[in-house]
Amino acid sequence: MVEEDLFRYLVELELRKAARLQYCVSVVYFTPDMPPGEADPDTTRRLAENATRRFRAGDVVASLPTAIGLLLVDAETQALPHIFDRTTEQLGHPRPLPSGEPGTWSGGASCYPLTAMTGAEMLRQASDLMAEATRAGGGRLCLPRTREVPA
Predict the structure, then answer these.
(1) Helical residues (DSSP H) of the chain, grouped into ranges
(2) Sign of the alpha-carbon dihedral angle for 78, 73, 127, 46
(3) 113 C-beta neighbours (distance < 10 Å), count
(4) What DSSP string runs through 94-127?
(5) The domain 2-142: what is its CATH number?
(6) SS3 of 113, please?
(7) b/e map of 17-29 (b: 16 or more CB within 10 Å)?
């Protein structure tokens, strides 16, 4: 698990390799749905540490202030809903609903070169889409539209 600054650097580094070797790289941000003000950086860090054990050695998990970030090497957008569902199910939720049901998660994603061309664009897109998922009531992963990739 890495902190936010190192995560940003690793995204940029991986994009350089992906451009040269022509493979996809995805970024996913996700956060447990909780009432405003209840997001806890210590809880997020603990969840990120737990998530680290669930990914391939080449993938990177980051602890962000109120979210978990994933850098997924050679993962395209169509695989991301499955990865999101599997990961959030395995992690559980820090606060179950009053009914006893597990809580929900909100997430957003981006994919080089299908939806974004720079690391900054990928991180912004994933963050914006995670916020969109939260505003829409949570319990979902918002994916960006793919764009035409020049041959």
Answers:
(1) 4-21, 41-52, 80-91, 119-135
(2) positive
(3) 17
(4) SS--TTSPPP-EEEEEEEETTT-SSHHHHHHHHH
(5) 3.30.70.270
(6) coil
(7) ebeeeeebbbbbb
> What would the pLDDT profile of 68-120 be if each residue is shown by its tens digit?
999 999 999 999 999 999 999 998 888 777 777 788 999 999 999 999 999 99
**29 touches 107 (CB < 8 A):** yes
Residue 21 contacts residue 77 (beta carbons within 8 Å): no
Is the separation of the CB atoms in 35 and 103 below 8 Å?
A: no
CB-based contact 110:76 (threshold 8 Å): no
- The pair of structure tokens assigned to 87 is 């990961």
Task: Identify the DSSP state of 37.
Answer: T
Q: Report domain extents, the chain.
A: 2-142
* Sheet of 105-112, strand order: 2-3, 60-63, 68-73, 25-32, 105-112, 140-142
Q: How far apart are CA 66 and CA 46, in angstroms?
A: 12
pLDDT tens for 20-70 read 999 999 999 999 998 777 777 888 899 899 898 888 888 999 999 889 999
Q: Are the C-beta atoms of residues 72 and 28 closer than 8 Å to each other?
A: yes
